[in-house]
Amino acid sequence: MNAITANSALIKVPIIITLYFWVIKILATTVGETGADFLIFNLNWGLPLTSALMSVVLVGFLFAQVKTKTYTPWLYWLTVVMVSIVGTLITDNLTDNLGVPLTVSTAAFSAVLAVTFWLWHKSEGSLSIHSIYTAKRELFYWAAILFTFALGTAAGDLLAESVGLGYAISALAFGAVIAVITIGFYAFKLNGILAFWLAYIITRPLGASIGDLLSQNVGNGGLGLGTMGTSAVFLVAIVGLVSYLTLSRVDAPKAVEGAV
Q: Which spans are transmembrane here (predicted)?
């Protein structure tokens, strides 16, 4: 039995990356963008209070995720949604409270993410999701995901707002990059681990651009659907898809789970 098969029961993240994974990921990133805005502006919590409360909630979900013994779709994806919200808030705090330019925060988060991957690979020898069967590797995984969300928020806002492309053009641009990555993987045998993480990084600004496009008012280049309505629709979609994954287990192969 190979190492991945032997340890697969200990892996608490999706093992098989299906289309469902990417759809939920984009939905979650959109909710991170619109959900943060809803809490800050619609509920009038303000950025500091929202950041503090959501960080505490995230720590609670991360603790539960790391302590659980098996892959649990609802817990995993709730954690992803919370990481998405907190990642958005980190960038918002840098931009709105500290006045850090989006060019600087985009470059800084790119560097921090690169260092995270380097430390992870140096320590564990692989960035493959099939190797995440220890708490240490899982913590590296979640740290990388947090920085991808913060980076994606900064990069999305940079293109849409600072560069002036607008939300729709930015979404199309990021979608085109993902299409190139997909073609590279299937047609030109791009390394699977590299393709996964590149796509994971780019789906964040894609989701952020979609969220802003749907929720922002027409005067700001959006469609005016509002943060509440956009967040609610996308959360319902996430719940439906995660429920399907919980019942079908299509992202956790039965043959591997039952291996002895």
A: 9-28, 40-62, 74-92, 98-119, 139-159, 165-186, 193-211, 223-247
Task: Give the per-residue pLDDT at 161.
Answer: 83
Query: Could you tell me the two tokens for 139?
Result: 């913590």
C-alpha distances in angstroms, 52 versus 32, 47, 62, 133, 209? 15, 9, 15, 30, 24
CA angle, 201 then 217 then 43, to 5°: 80
| Cβ–Cβ < 8 Å for 42, 228 | yes
Helices (H), the chain: 3-7, 19-37, 47-67, 73-92, 102-124, 135-157, 167-188, 192-215, 227-248, 254-257
pLDDT digits (tens, 9 = 90+) for 222-236: 788 888 888 888 999
CB 155 within 8 A of CB 95: no
If you average pLDDT over residues 46-75, what whole number do you get?
Answer: 94
Model's pTM, two decimal places? 0.88
In 3D space, the residue among 27, 22, 21, 33 whose CA is nearest the CA of residue 234 turns out to be 27
Q: Are 49 and 102 in contact (CB under 8 A)?
A: no
Statement: residue 146 has pLDDT above 80:
yes
Cα separation, 227 vs 214, whole angstroms: 8
Rounded to an integer, what is the distance from CA 211 to the centroid of its chain?
Answer: 13
Q: If DSSP codes are grouped into helix, strand and coil, which group holds residue 45?
A: coil
Measured CA to CA, the distance from residue 193 to residue 170 in angstroms comes to: 25
Query: Buried b vs exposed e over 77-109: b needs ≥16 C-beta within 10 Å?
Result: bbbbbbbbbbbbbbbbebbeeeeeebeebbebb
